[in-house]
Amino acid sequence: MNWHCSYRLCGVLLLGMTSLLIPVFAGCVLVPGLTQEAHQLLRKQSISSTNPLPPINAPANSIQLEILFVERPASDPTVSEKLWREIDEVGAAAPGLRQLMQQNGLRIGTVGASPPPMLQALLGMSRQIEDEYSLSQCVRRKVVVQSGATTNIDVKSWLDPMEVSLNENGKTTSKTFEQLQCVLKLRPHRLQDGWVRLDLIPELHHGQEQMRHTPTDAGWELRGGKLVETCYAQKFSVTLNTGEMAVASCTNAAETTLGGNFFGQPKQLQPKQKVLVVRFAGMHKPETLP
């Protein structure tokens, strides 16, 4: 008699456990008191609610820029005087500033939305260059910057101590920097629909990375970074329409000038030379990102 009772009790327990596990294997847990239609509605809502976070709004009044770097041997025709004959240097800077920048080894200019043939070849937009230095040496990235905000363009970094010669007021001084990083601080400004002004200032970041009090638009902030020497005298601005480009490089890649350290290889017998191109791609239209 006791054996029969135990057998029946085990059967009841197994039946109860099976009834509890069936809803779990079916993909949902039934809530007592709800109809089958209510359970199906709850299940659909739980599946559709995959992203509970609110949508992210893209920043308004932002400027889209495309930044391109090309590095080639300094003796290559595509980075020589032939390139600069097709670039407008006169409209990019006032005569006094242009002379000062050339004394410091810097060269800047602008081109239209349809790049001239030599620049097209340099950027790999045409097939005039067919060697190991063509497309593989063209580095591109896109940035979106709020009008009036700043972003840094890292042009070149040096592990060895580098000598930099600066010419100011007709006097040349030289200084050696440890762990030098050549940076262009870029601040774009929206002028009107389809027009922007780009303000660029060369900066010499050097020394060890550590926490420092840094001046910002909001005041002094404690930030990590190197010591910064800003070359205010070489600040330049260019005005671009949609699709137009600003071009910057050096006058002599082998010299220890500011431009040589930014875009060349000072004191090298066969230096390579960098060319920076900043293209104004257009205003960023406000939209809701998924």
Number of helices: 6
Rg for CA atoms: 31 Å
Structure classification: alpha+beta
SS strand fraction? 35-45%
pLDDT averaged residue by residue: 81
Distance between the termini: 69 Å
The count of domains is 1
The number of distinct β-strands equals 14
Order of helices and strands: HHEEHHEHEEEEEEEEEHEE
Which geometry do the CA atoms define? globular
Point out poorly predicted stretches: 18-30, 127-136
Major sheet characteristics:
5 strands, antiparallel
Binned, the helix content reads 10-25%
What does this structure look like?
It is a single chain. Helices cover 21% and strands 42% of the residues. It has 290 residues and is of the alpha+beta class. It has one domain. The protein has a five-stranded antiparallel sheet. Strands 5, 8, 9, 10 and 11 form a five-stranded antiparallel sheet that branches. A hairpin with a 2-residue loop joins strand 9 and strand 10 (219-230). The longest helix is centred in the N-terminal third of the chain and has 24 residues, at 2-25.
